[in-house]
Amino acid sequence: MTTGEIGVDIGGTFTDVVCRLSDGTVRIAKIPTTSGDPSRAVLAALEMARLEWGVAPTNITRFVHGTTVATNAVLERKGARIGLITTEGFRDVLEIGRQMRHRMYDLVLKPETPVFLAPGRFRKEVGERLDAQGRTLRELDESSVRRAIEELAAQEVRAIAVCLVFSFLDPTHEQRVRDMIQAMHPSLLVSLSSEVDPAFREYERTCVTAFDAYIKPVVADYLANIEHGLSRAGVTVPLQVMQSRGGLMSSSVARQRPVRLFLSGPAAGVVGGLEAGRAAGFADVITVDIGGTSCDIALITDGAPLIRGEGVIDGYTVRVPMVDVTAIGSGGGSIAWIDGAGSLKVGPHSAGSEPGPACYGRGGQWPTVTDASVVLGYIDPANFAGGTMRLRPELAHEAIDRVIARPLGMSVEQAALGIHRVLNAQMSEAIRLISIGRGIDPRGYALLPLGGGGPMHGCALAEQMGISSIVVPAHPGVLSAAGLLGAPVAHEVAAAFPCPLASLDPAALANASRSLDERCGALMRQEGIVDAQITHFVDVCYIGQSYHLEVPLDAIDAAVIYEAFLAAHARVYGHSTNVPAKIVNLRTVHQAFAGTIATHATTAASARTPGTRTIRVASGPVMAAIWQRGAIQSDVIIPGPAIIEQADTTTLVEPGWTARLTSGDALLLERSA
Known about the structure:
Blueprint (H helix, E strand, L loop, with lengths): L3 E7 L3 E8 L4 E7 L6 H14 L7 E7 L2 H7 L6 E6 L5 H4 L26 E4 L2 E2 L5 E3 L3 H13 L4 E5 L8 H13 L4 E4 H4 L5 H32 L5 E4 L5 E3 H6 L7 H16 L5 E6 L4 E7 L2 E2 L1 E2 L2 E3 L2 E3 L3 E2 L1 E4 L5 E5 L5 E7 L18 H7 L17 H16 L3 H23 L11 E5 L3 H12 L3 E4 L6 H8 L1 E13 L5 H21 L6 E10 L6 E4 L5 H16 L7 E13 L17 E7 L2 E9 L9 E2 L2 E5 L2 E5 L3 E6 L3 E6 L2
Parallel strand pairs: 1-4, 4-11, 5-6, 5-9, 9-10, 13-23, 30-32
Antiparallel strand pairs: 1-2, 2-3, 7-8, 11-12, 13-14, 14-15, 14-20, 16-19, 17-18, 21-22, 24-35, 25-28, 26-27, 26-28, 29-30, 31-34, 32-33, 34-35
């Protein structure tokens, strides 16, 4: 009987599948994403496991999923119609925001706050009020609550966000509003700010609670579709989903906390990159995840990624803990075009999987980065995606010639090189932003390219950043899916704890930590886990400062907390100041590791003399050796120019670089002496 664990990561172009069998071997696949209903790709992965790998649905021991459904619901404005209930006088907080404008000189000014979540007619006020210490100034007026609920129900909302002033200090009023909603209209979903984001700053708390309600019905329907499909197929294990912070949770808990799924897929890539870098002997790594639609870049320092207290989704700040990933619209499917000034541009628009790049032969008319890679000889049209898809190079030539080469008066090959150079420049600028822009020298880091397109651009990016080592994992094209199998089951619970460090009461902080541990432990027990690794954190800022930093709570001691905050401030902002600080929030993270990342090579091809073909690099046409990844022996050093092919990606070893196998089944690319 063959059993296996399956990780499925859905991207904009391909759905990546990794199956780790009971004997330790790994099977991988890339399936075109079904844009109309991404859940169908998950079920297609299930069928592939049964037919090609001999893993029956009843023999699947874990099924882990990374999804972009939460992000896409916002980007495509396909969330649910929601209502917002607020304290009397605070109806327009969502619209007012912070009164900051990032685009001051546009002729037509547009809202910079997510008013689309709950336009004015869907925002209702209720009578109640707490003060800044959480004391009740006015009891909840339940008649106003009933009126608000009935008005929103008549407007056919599917969910209601409840955000009352200072409810993070005492959630009693919000909890009573939820009870009334569930009693009057049980079908309505509810998001409470005291549970979604129990912290100060009224606009940010209102914003993230509204986002949670907006995507809650969409996420619930999506997960239900997958669960029903898995159940019909005979899968008996619970569905697990990746969170933005880098941990897994069951789909049942994900329904309760959907706003934590915003960076589900990219977070899995960072987890996979961290483990692959560690296995290869590198604790300081820059991961560059180049998929079909986007490029996600993250910095890993001392074996840990930076966790941000908030992220940006479609230009809106969302206060949810997430792995610090910078995303740009640059990928293999990014479309090349010429702007009105005659300059070559690449992205942010993508051909996706339907119709896809011109070379797919599915009706795509615009040239993409993948088309350029075919023209340059980097991709073998007969061996793309392990031979599962045959490309048409003549269509790639025609598209680049028609759209780029002829208008710019150059050859098709020159235009293809230009497309790659523009893309590389965009990605290297993003790397500078997260490294040099934060006072970090990237030359002390290894570059870890992943995604289907990452290893093809690794050498060019490393050259531009002055990086001398590149780590290409065993399965870089599906590393996000592999990272899912190595991620821990994790939950995080936070609460406001406003307190100057100078007057910290250690007993009060210890009691608050125990309370959070009880709540987080209950979530872990829903996952079937009773023994978890527990870590505590505090959010700290200078007194008078508006934004805080998360620091580990290694000891309940004001001096220790303060020193950790100064170190974090210096690391993030490049400086720190010896002035009084205060605790803002307290949080606990419980996690338990269920497996390890799938890194072992699936099969080893028999050693043979590599073939050759002409490729084009910046210096001109060169003859490159063509290696199959599984045929590379541990004692072989491959000088560039060379192409290393495998089912999930292609690695380009440019002139001046060498490649060899290293620990963790990774390829190590180094600059030639």
